[in-house]
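As agreed, record copied across for absentees:
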Amino acid sequence: MNIRHMQYMAAIAEEGSLSRAARRLGVSQPALSNWLSDLEGEFATPLFIRSGRRLTLTPAGKIYLDGCRRMIQLNSQMVRALSASAKGLKESILLGGSPIRGARTFACIFTDFRKEYPDVDLDFISGKNSELREALLKETITLSLYGATETSLPDLEYIKIADEELVLMLPPGHPLSYDASRVTPESDLPVIRLEEISGTPLLISKSETSYYSTVVRLLEAAGLASSVVFRSNIVPLLYDMVRNGCGAALIPRAYFSPEDSISIYSFRPKLITYQGIAMKRGHRLTDAERYLIQLTMKNWGAPVYLRNYASYYMQKKMEQEDSQLWT
């Protein structure tokens, strides 16, 4: 079986639909359906259960998919190695991330990475979360800095770097303002209900951000959806607009500075999002990629326990990869 057919199997499993998989692969649905029928006939066992419009893997399908993914990954590593060899390098890594925080992190780690791995070609590509996910699944990027509201992601493995709390930031002079000049990253914050800021213009992120749907759901529940006056996927811009009195915003606490006369409130339960590094499920990390992850965690400012967690995670992943090679 060729790699293209293995990609067919992976796409069907990931999309759960022949029509969506066909669109993703750029083939016709009848051709893909015939291919799957021939494959199941060859093995004399179904690989998927047809339940309405949804395709679900059978136990045999899971075994076959796992083998396909490992072969796709090995092929991808071979292609990257050949590409790097053509450039006179040992390896090539393409890291994805957001155009602001992702790019800033990449700038911080580039020099240290090059010192340790001068023969590895390291590059960066920015994009929206949805674009980065698609690139990881297609293996056009190797790893990606990735924001998420869950740590369990479909078809991706995720190493959490940091928890981030979404908070409400009020502009100077707001009726609910208070002196937040002594607030530190460890400080407990006063708690607020969104209904208390009725009538306040609201500034929110666009759908590209990982927590957009969470914010919209909260505003709708509080009856404040009509108060939104501005949207942007540039979080520093939203923060500066709060600082300049344009309205209130729900954004990560990490952007807050006690020098800006902004008031900051928490919610109960707290709204937590995550920052981390994502890779396609089954991806086999190279030594250079492991070092890149460690540098990223260090320069993202993750607490020590999270860095230890990443080391533990990668050790377990290496053990899992080694065991798979001999099964």
Q: What stands out?
A: The CA atoms of residues 130 and 208 lie 7 Å apart. The two ends are 20 Å apart (CA to CA).
